[in-house]
């Protein structure tokens, strides 16, 4: 490696002092109310019901969990027959 320049060393020390005085920001706010304001109880159910679309296998399984309690056969049909789902899930329609 080459020699370090005095000017570069001065800049390095300057930034080291500035950055060492900074306090790290917490990842989440301290109060529970502030944390709840930042995040919403958002789910993809309204999107999937609107477009009748489930993008991948993981979301498809998550979408089907409430239905599996009443009809476990839906999961097997969805994996092997690639059905298009609707929100009522009473009868699965084959996708086009």
Question: What do you see in this structure?
Answer:
The chain has about 100 residues and is mostly helical. The chain folds into two domains: about 5-40; about 45-95, no CATH class. It contains five helices and two strands, in the order αααααββ. The protein has a two-stranded antiparallel ribbon with strand order 1-2. Helix 4 (about 55-70) runs antiparallel to helix 5 (about 75-80). It is elongated and about 75 Å long.
Main sheet attributes: strand count, strand direction, barrel closure: 2 strands, antiparallel
Nearest-integer average pLDDT: 64
Question: What general form does the structure show?
Answer: elongated
Q: Helices and strands: which structural class?
A: mainly alpha
Strand content: under 5%
Write out the strand line-up for the largest beta sheet, numbering strands in chain order: 1-2
Task: Write down the secondary-structure element order.
Answer: HHHHHEE
Q: So how many helices? A: 5
Number of strands: 2
Q: How many domains comprise the coordinates?
A: 2
N-to-C CA distance: 63 Å
State the share of residues found in helices, binned by percent.
Answer: 40-55%
Uncertain parts: none
Cα radius of gyration in angstroms: 27 Å
Features:
2 domains; 96 residues; two-stranded antiparallel sheet; mainly alpha; elongated
In short:
The chain has five helices and two strands; from the N terminus they run αααααββ. It has 96 residues and is mainly alpha-helical.
Topology:
Layout: H1 6-21, H2 32-38, H3 45-51, H4 57-68, H5 73-81, E1 83-84, E2 93-94
Antiparallel strand pairs: 1-2
Helix pairs in contact: 4-5
């Amino acid at each position: 490696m080459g020699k370090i320049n005095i000017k570069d060393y001065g800049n390095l020390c300057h930034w080291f002092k500035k950055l060492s005085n900074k306090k790290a920001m917490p990842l989440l706010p301290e109060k529970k109310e502030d944390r709840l304001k930042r995040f919403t109880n958002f789910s993809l159910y309204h999107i999937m019901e609107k477009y009748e679309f489930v993008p991948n296998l993981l979301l498809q399984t998550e979408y089907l969990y409430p239905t599996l309690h009443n009809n476990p056969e839906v999961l097997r049909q969805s994996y092997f027959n690639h059905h298009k789902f609707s929100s009522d899930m009473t009868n699965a329609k084959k996708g086009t």
